[in-house]
Amino acid sequence: MAISARTRTLLTWLPATVLAVVIGAVVIASLAIQESWWTQENPAASADQKASDGSSMLTDAGFDYVNVEGVVRVRVGEGGLSATELGLPVDGEKSADFRRPVRALIAVGDEVHALDDIASLTAVAEGDRLVALTLRPDVVRGWSGALDYLRALAPDFGWDASELDPLEGELGEFNRSGEGETFTASIGPSTGTAATVTGTLVFDRSSGATPVTITFEPAG
User: Fold this and answer.
1) Phi, psi dihedrals of residue 161, rounded to the nearest 5°
2) DSSP 44-89
3) With contact defined as beta carbons under 8 Å apart, do 153 and 172 qualify?
4) Is the pTM of this model over 0.70?
5) What is the DSSP secondary-structure string of 34-45?
6) Closest to 212 (Cα-Cα) out of 126, 125, 150, 124
7) pLDDT tens digits, residue range 91-126?
8) Domain that holds residue 74
9) Are 197 and 219 in contact (CB under 8 A)?
10) How many domains are contained in the chain?
11) How far is it, in rounded angstroms, from Cα 142 to Cα 202?
């Protein structure tokens, strides 16, 4: 690793022994990064990162691979793996905040739904079944953006977009009342497939932020 003239001048102020340690540490760190799995362009997934059907393991190791590949894959409902096969507890939940927005590919029956710019995920297991998968996209900045985002998804998930129409009035009543800190509303769930899908928005009175979540649950 090259050391600039300015850095070399500054280092002359250090005792020789300390200087040797500093340079040695820099070289070791550089070599460690060069050999790191994270720097590989297309690293192969290990058994604890991808499940037997190609789904992402819902574990820290699995999410590490998602961060590198940029894609999280999960099947919800019929044909999906058990919770333990996905690395989840028999009963419990697992959440992840991704290092960068990723694409989510969610298989439901014969369909695959693609959602981009996913910032976080929460998976819930009960009785060794994946009973809920909630995604939070990092694309919404306020109330209007949240409504537009859910309207755009309505055709894909079979939602009735008119369910969103009364929300402007309901939000106005919430703001006038001065009661409560957040206003929550949902659209869906969808029906007729191997999983139901619900969109939820939460308006924060103090900041105006309105995060959105999309939740997949096995049907029946």
Assistant:
1) -60, -20
2) PP-TTTB-TTSPBPSSHHHHHHHHHHSEEEEE-STTPPPTGGGT--
3) no
4) yes
5) HH-GGG-SSPPP
6) 150
7) 999 999 999 999 999 999 999 999 999 999 999 999
8) 60-119
9) no
10) 2
11) 10
